[in-house]
Design goal:
With 238 residues, the chain is α/β, with parallel strands linked by helices. 34% of the residues lie in helices and 23% in strands. Helix 4 links the parallel strand 5 (91-96) and strand 6 (115-119).
Length: 238
């Protein structure tokens, strides 16, 4: 499998659990604000799933988070890594963009993942501009994946990185209506410093107050909503 990095200890990638994070290479989207894109293109290591797992310092980890890139582009290796992690007694979280839900459903069928974080980038008509991917496909995939997770008792978080220069509250309303069956919805602060496209480095970051107001909008549709700035996580109560 192709990977571009491993974090041995993270306290932010799996809620309420200390985790190790594996970053799998390749992505079928090109989000200009992605923190990982340049690392993914410059640092690619070919390893077996067993070698990846054995290269993690698991002294403090309770869970394994598999991120990217988009992990579902390497379905066989992803599945094998999940099998190894589950066999060793770890909870498994998958970060995905929702493009390959049959791969995700197969992992759910095998009881190989416990938590899914689904990135919902923007209003679906804006997907092509922001991600270079068809938003209508994502619009169709989301309800199917939400229902499948509910049916199989897999926790699903949906999350959006809010970019004020490209998005507004209408994006959040559209997304919230679409993902209203999720267990948690997170609105994240856009970080221009670590964007890989130069044009995004010039865009304005949202304030914490702006994120909170957007969180209140999402709360009209979704029970559990949090907003995350660089410095804090705020649970929206309304």
């Amino acid at each position: 499998m192709k990977v571009f990095g491993i974090i041995d200890v993270s306290t932010i990638d799996y809620p309420k659990k200390c985790s190790a994070v594996v970053f799998m290479s390749d992505c079928n989207m090109k989000c200009g604000y992605c923190h990982n894109y340049e690392h993914m293109m410059e640092n690619i290591y070919e390893m077996t799933p067993e070698e990846v797992f054995n290269n993690i310092d698991l002294m403090f980890a309770e869970a394994i988070v598999i991120s990217g890139g988009e992990p579902t582009l390497q379905p066989d290796d992803l599945k094998e890594l999940c099998k190894i992690a589950k066999k060793e007694g770890f909870s498994v979280k998958l970060d995905t963009n929702g493009t390959n839900i049959e791969v995700v459903k197969d992992l759910i069928d095998g009881k190989l993942i416990d938590y899914i974080a689904l990135d919902v980038k923007c209003a679906f008509e804006k997907y092509k501009n922001i991600t270079d991917y068809d938003g209508e496909e994502i619009r169709k995939n989301i309800p199917e994946l939400l229902n499948y997770c509910k049916k199989n008792n897999v926790f699903i978080e949906c999350r959006t990185t809010f970019i004020p220069d490209l998005m507004d509250e209408k994006d959040i309303i559209e997304i919230s209506k679409t993902v209203k069956g999720c267990d948690l919805y997170t609105i994240q602060q856009f970080d221009r410093e670590h964007a890989w496209k130069e044009e995004y480095k010039q865009m304005r970051e949202p304030t914490t107050n702006e994120l909170v107001e957007l969180g209140k909008i999402a709360k009209e549709y979704i029970k559990n909503v949090v907003v995350k700035s660089k410095d804090e996580t705020i649970h929206i109560i309304k």
